[in-house]
Amino acid sequence: MSKSVFFVTCPKGVEYLLADELSTFGLDPVRNAPAGVWVEGSLEAGYRACLWSRLANRLILHIDEVDANSGDQLYDGVVHMDWQQHIPVHGSFRVTFLGQNEAIRNTQYGAQRVKDGIVDRFQANGGPRPSVDAKNPDVIVSARLNRGRLSLGIDLSGHSLHMRGYRTDKGIAPLKENLAAALLMRAGWPEIAAAGGDFVDPMCGSGTLVIEAAMMALDMAPGRKQERFGFEKWPGHQPELWLSLRQEAERRAHEGKQGRIPRLAGFDQDSRVIATAWKNIQRAGLESIVHVEARRSTLWIWRVTGPIRGWC
After folding, report:
1. Are residues 150 and 32 in the same domain?
2. How is residue 169 annotated by DSSP?
3. Strand order in the sheet with 92-98
4. How far is CA 196 from CA 83, 88, 176, 191, 259, in A?
5. Residue 190 sits in which domain range?
């Protein structure tokens, strides 16, 4: 199976954790970057990352890199690429643009030049051209400018992977799902759960931390409830391969509930935020697994002689 290069984005400070996680999917790290990791692997490994990564934001299939010391130079590089491999002729696309240099100081201008190059390439071939859809495109073209070089790719995730689909309601100070997962990994929760440990969040808010802990312990893919990914209308998509990975994720989620299930609980003194947590738990399909309730949290302070109980 041929290998591709991917750029996987993440919150700053999570790069090394992400590189380790991606290697478990069959993606070999090439180099770390600020807020992301360059990796190499098969399309199947890329699909696994979209479905299983608990830390990533976006997974971008790298296509090419062109000189971009000026708007015209950027356009010349883009217009000579074979975009029909990546954008359906009768479909739609949009361009996301990040970065700037002395000649390209506005991301909107940069995105416009990339869009012009793509459209003109289709018209030069004498056929129809795809439309531009800013809200719900079939394909998202990612353009990242670093100094005088523009990296171009296809956003296979289509949305930020930190959004699992269960958290439509938030608390006052929401913790993003992938940051919650990073905290749990740093704390060694996967190993603790495997060894028979339990999990309690004494200030659970809308329940993100305890839900992520449950999904890890039960081997539930964080992307299994997502209805759509960015690769599904990409011409290179392999539907049968993707279906097999989705079926595997469902099987693993089912098997995860058959063994020993840790006690997973959360508490918060605000009854309104607990109501929000219950809604999130239900959307995650964990209402029989995770328990939350409104109460004053118990704080345990450990000393050499044992715990001293206090209230917070």
Report:
1. yes
2. S
3. 28-33, 36-41, 4-9, 58-67, 149-155, 139-146, 92-98, 131-132
4. 51, 49, 26, 9, 11
5. 177-218+261-311
For residue 241, being part of any structural domain is answered with no
The Cα 66–Cα 58 span in angstroms is 21
| pLDDT tens, residue by residue, 117-154 | 999 999 997 778 899 999 999 999 999 999 899 999 99
One domain, residues 132 and 33: yes
**End residue of a domain, out of 155, 185, 209:** 155
- What local confidence, expressed as pLDDT, does residue 312 receive? 33
CB 197 within 8 A of CB 262: yes
Are 212 and 134 found together in one domain?
no
Write down the H helix ranges in the chain.
15-23, 43-52, 71-79, 107-124, 177-186, 189-194, 208-217, 239-256, 271-283
Percent of the chain whose pLDDT exceeds 90: 87
- Asked if 165 contacts 158 with a C-beta cutoff of 8 angstroms, the reply is no
Same domain, 77 and 186: no
pLDDT in tens, 154-192: 999 999 999 999 987 665 657 999 999 999 999 999 999
